[in-house]
Amino acid sequence: xxxxxxxxxxxxxxxxxxxxxxxxxxxxxxxxxxxxxxxxxxxxxxxxxxxxxxxxxxxxxxxxxxxxxxxxxxxxxxxxxxxxxxxxxxxxxxxxxxxxxxxxxxxxxxxxxxxxxxxxxxxxxxxxxxxxxxxxxxxxxxxxxxxxxxxxxxxxxxxxxxxxxxxxxxxxxxxxxxxxxxxxxxxxxxxxxxxxxxxxxxxxxxxxxxxxxxxxxxxxxxxxxxxxxxxxxxxxxxxxxxxxxxxxxxxxxxxxxxxxxxxxxxxxxxxxxxxxxxxxxxxxxxxxxxxxxxxxxxxxxxxxxxxxxxxxxxxxxxxxxxxxxxxxxxxxxxxxxxxxxxxxxxxxxxxxxxxxxxxxxxxxxxxxxxxxxxxxxxxxxxxxxxxxxxxxxxxxxxxxxxxxxxxxxxxxxxxxxxxxxxxxxxxxxxxxxxxxxxxxxxxxxxxxxxxxxxxxxxxxxxxxxxx
Length: 467
Description:
The chain is α/β, with parallel strands linked by helices. The chain has 16 helices and 17 strands. The protein has helices at residues 76-87, 92-109, 133-145, 177-193, 211-224, 238-248, 252-259, 276-285, 293-298, 306-311, 328-343, 357-373, 393-396, 406-413, 442-449, 453-466, and strands at 2-11, 14-24, 27-33, 41-48, 50-55, 111-118, 148-155, 197-199, 202-203, 230-233, 266-269, 288-291, 315-318, 388-391, 419-424, 427-431, 434-435. It has an eight-stranded mixed β-sheet. Strands 5, 6, 7, 8 and 9 form a five-stranded parallel β-sheet that branches. Helix 3 links the parallel strand 6 (111-118) and strand 7. It is globular and about 65 Å long. It starts with a strand and ends with a helix. The relative contact order is 0.15.
């Protein structure tokens, strides 16, 4: 049991002063007024940890490799071609190292859980792994880093609408339904072996699966867990919308709502190009909209109609996707700024109940992220998992730091990382801005520095750049 005193903590009731949090087996069992002397540890400002609803871990090593202009008009599709060439070089050990580095970066930035949209399944010559070696690499990386993991094996069968055969660059993603369901069962077993993990699935997109594949895969994972999260890329690019209309006679979200039993355990990733009817359909279904502002901007995807969606009580979460940025503050900042640019207004994503844009965004995204992962987190509340962040009050106090403005300053004013300490499932994984793997004694530092995650990752990037 741990007793943690917080001078200021953001709970479901709002900011509370001088609270004593009692944590047992990773869960908050009480929150009550107290004094620092009664606690095992005393900290300042505490807020809920953020959930990253959409991650392709291996793409962290790809960040920065695709920003050169080509002779053609560059787009998501030209970026994808370069990405395929890059991932063809990666081994299972490479994937584990990349994910470990990424998850450490996530934790230090304030993400305490990640939904891993995992689709790099096979080895370098395309042979199917009977045991889920690539998936094990992700589980192992999350355990080493200490982040909560929602594992989402990706079903990828076709290269385009109409069951087009996969391209050479997609061979490492492809499964038959039988192979995929076996992988899901194997990953379900792994969740019993690794702490703070759960399992869902990710039918990649409507262009990569057909109706039968989609329904069969959902049925299988729901036989293992009836609340298993289902994530899917949907309507990310206008070309995808046009191709879907040409094949099905319906827009992607329109078709999905009509042909699948969408509920609160679904997360629609990049539902960028939707019309008002589709938007209202998502809200009515209870599904989460997974928005990844920095990646969507980097790829030129477009802008999700966030203001209208929130006005209709839509639920949203944020993700870092391709990891061109690994920073929840930046995702939320650009979620708001994109709306300001479109609407030519300020303070767009606030509500009558919560006029602070920063506080609304942080709390809504944390709760939406938890819903997207079927995770018992997202807020600081009795009965919830103790996933929390301690902010650096010395840095925060250089801006408007009162209760009314604290999260606005966090998101919109500071350019420095204000996350000081991070707790996941009742365990400190970041202290004073350092991940536990970086906290070495002076005797250990010289020996370990050359073998640190960051150092090994830097060597991997150098090798990939040469290949």
